[in-house]
Specification:
By secondary structure, the chain is of the alpha+beta class. The chain has 11 helices and 10 strands. Strands 3-5-4 form a 3-stranded antiparallel beta sheet.
Amino acid sequence: MASLISRAGVAPAQLDAVTGALRQRGVVVAGDRAVAAAHLARARDALVALVSAFHKANPLSEGLPREEARERLFTKAAPAIFERVLDDLKASKALAGADRLALASHRVTISGEDAKAKTAIAEAYRRGALKPPDAAVVAAEAKAPPAVVERVIALLLREKTLVRLDTLIFHADALMKLKEEIAALKGAAPGGRATVDVSAFKDRYGVTRKFAIPLLEYLDRERVTRRTGDVRLVL
């Protein structure tokens, strides 16, 4: 607003009067832009319609990515206008969210084919444990089309039932059990100093290097282990 007033050559003391006059003329100030109130109203309606359509097409998603909304409706508008529209819609409780925009009334609901697929997919990863199935096997066990499998897996990842490690997906229960088992090695080791290397890990869990490396790196990130040369020290 200060930038707008400055460019217009209006003295700071006249700010309130100028702002009031703009409002009376149906003009709203958004950042350093003056915008017709009717234009903002149309922009608000368009954004709500866009988010509503997204929910209808993606019922398991939390909401429309904020940046996608901006690119689809506000590419030619100043950033301040997009922000003003968002602020207005959130203030009126029409929209909610930060990185993803959703109708305030939106709740992720699952039923029918998706509900059955969710149970089957979660169970497939639970059984797979530290050797999770690939996408084709998961789809076959779920007896669901690839599109359904993809959106259900995305939901399970958001719910933290599943966890992605690099390109692999594991059930959270399997990772929790792994952390507990590796952490317990320290108490059973002479002097309380336990280490594990790739070879020992592969033998212990019957996994290939494809699974062992991401899992060991996960243990490092979780501060269960710390890599020291070719071995991991159990913390």
